[in-house]
Design goal:
With 495 residues, the chain is α+β, with helices and mostly antiparallel strands. The protein is built from 18 helices and 14 strands. Helix 10 crosses helix 11 and helix 16 packs antiparallel against helix 17. It starts with 5 loop residues before the first helix and ends in a 31-residue tail after the last helix.
């Protein structure tokens, strides 16, 4: 029998055949004109966000909200792990041939895998290759080097102290003389906590905002995980295990729930601190998850994987393995950050930014609260800096007297300047002086208002955007003009 080509596969198979083989089920609720296929969990419920819609010709599909179309070849190559024929590292064209020929009941000739070059196995991880710098709870000098790693992640000193036994700075010098230093989270195998088998590494933040993340050379990331408990609970004794894709996420989750703004009571916080926090360091392996479940036999597992497509798949993988390990579903809890955040560290950073915002109601000066509150859409809303620097007539009256007087002075000068610009009896140099005085008064008002609100930087940013301070730019065209028509004039501030 002649070998079938890609064109043969596309003519003889349709995308629906491939979707079903990949584990998708026809979603009958969407009708038959544009059929859709969804994945179901072990309870028979739809997995949110995992849906493909078949196009009109039945040869392609796409996954909303993206509009990228996949034919049968593209779908198999982009989603190799969904097919039983796939093994890690397999050539994608080989996989397409195996899947399509199997669906067509066309036997494929077995062939030996040729090894072009025999790769030498990587050396096993050795901790003695590194110089370690530890975080000592009683020594502030020992804590300072950790600041550039934890500060950009929003992880405070209390959180660092809680997990201090299970991270360090690891420094290694290569044969070429290069020195590498990273924040390192030691990985151990569940049930074998006495030996470090690798490091989950994180670098300092660079000027472009990126930072290194990865595994130390030779790390056993198939079996090992980072595990830590603020109260020193052993995994075998754990009542709760909190599992994440990174140690940063684990620490962020803890910080948000242990702090003063936490919804937990004292008893729940105590239980939280006695839990074991674990990180897979990226994509979880089956052996990592099985090791956790087999060691923490009585634990409830709180799964804090990311909310992206990969994180959803990892969660389903955990549940499938749990079924195999006879871990009941009532011992598995999905932990997710609030809507709009990919992971818990993202949510923590956003929360800190909000808490530190000068316009947060807790940060506003007492004599400015009524003024700022007039801009809030809800009691907890944080208005924009642009809004609070451009008040209307009623809001001006809510300002403290010194600021109100500055505005009145500016408005008076503006009215004078406007009148002079339309007079034929005033010398041009006098018009220009009046214009400059009005602009200066408006700028002074905005600067003092910014200081009272703690918005100096935001006020400067306004200038950069050609938003003229105090609204002398009446028609918002970016030009400072006081000789504008009466139809556009509305006091001094642009409303």
């Amino acid at each position: 029998m002649a070998k079938l080509t890609y064109d043969d596969f596309k003519q003889r198979l349709n995308i629906q055949d491939v979707l079903v083989d990949a584990g998708y089920t026809l979603n009958r609720r969407d009708g038959l004109r544009y059929p859709s296929y969804v994945r179901l969990d072990s309870d028979g419920r739809r997995i949110r966000g995992d849906k493909f819609i078949v196009t009109a010709n039945g040869q392609c599909c796409f996954q909303p909200p993206t509009q990228r179309n996949y034919n049968i070849i593209g779908f198999i190559k982009e989603h190799p792990e969904m097919f039983a024929d796939y093994t890690p590292g397999m050539d994608k064209d080989r996989l397409v041939n195996l899947v399509c020929n199997r669906l067509l009941n066309n036997p494929v000739e077995d062939r030996e895998t040729k090894i072009v070059t025999e790769r030498q196995p990587l050396p096993a991880f050795r901790l003695d290759e590194y110089t370690l710098h530890k975080f000592e709870g009683s020594n502030r000098d020992s804590q300072k080097p950790f600041y550039p790693y934890f500060k950009p992640r929003g992880l405070n000193l209390s959180t660092q102290y809680a997990f201090r036994k299970d991270f360090f700075l690891a420094e290694r010098t290569t044969q070429g003389g290069h020195v590498y230093k990273n924040l390192s989270f030691p990985m151990t195998i569940p049930g074998k906590d006495d030996k470090i088998v690798g490091l989950e590494e994180r670098g300092r933040k660079k000027q472009d905002g990126t930072s290194y993340k990865g595994m130390a050379r030779g790390s056993n990331a198939s079996d090992g995980l980072w595990m830590s408990s603020p109260e020193g609970t052993q995994l075998k004794d754990a009542k709760r295990v909190f599992l994440f894709e990174s140690a940063y996420d684990a620490m962020a989750f803890y910080q948000m729930l242990i702090g003063k703004d936490s919804p937990l009571d004292a008893a729940d916080k105590k239980e939280l601190s006695h839990g074991v926090f674990a990180s897979t360091g990226g994509n979880p392996s089956a052996r990592q998850l099985e090791g956790l479940m087999r060691t923490a036999k009585e634990a409830t597992f709180h799964i804090g994987f990311d909310t992206d497509e990969a994180g959803i798949k990892f969660y389903e993988q955990f549940k499938a393995l749990a079924d195999r390990e006879n871990v009941s579903r009532d011992r598995i809890i999905r932990e997710e950050p609030n809507e709009g955040y990919k992971d818990f560290n993202d949510e923590l950073l956003a929360r800190i930014e909000r808490q530190n915002n000068p316009l947060n109601k807790d940060n506003v000066r007492e004599d400015m609260k009524e003024y700022v509150d007039s801009f809030r859409k809800t009691p907890d809303d944080i208005p924009s800096a642009k809004a609070v620097l451009h008040p209307n007539d009623e809001q001006i009256d809510l300002l403290p007297k010194p600021l109100w007087q500055l505005y009145a002075h500016y408005e008076s000068l503006y009215e004078d300047a406007y009148t002079m610009m339309h007079s034929c009896l005033v010398a041009p140099e006098d018009k220009e002086d009046a214009k400059k005085d009005a602009i200066a008064a408006g700028k002074q008002f905005t600067e003092e208002l910014s200081k009272a609100l703690g918005l100096k930087e935001e006020a400067e940013a306004e200038t950069d955007e050609k938003k003229v301070a105090a609204g002398v730019d009446i028609d918002s065209d970016g030009n400072v003009e006081v000789e504008e028509c009466d139809e556009t004039k509305h006091h001094g501030m642009h409303r």
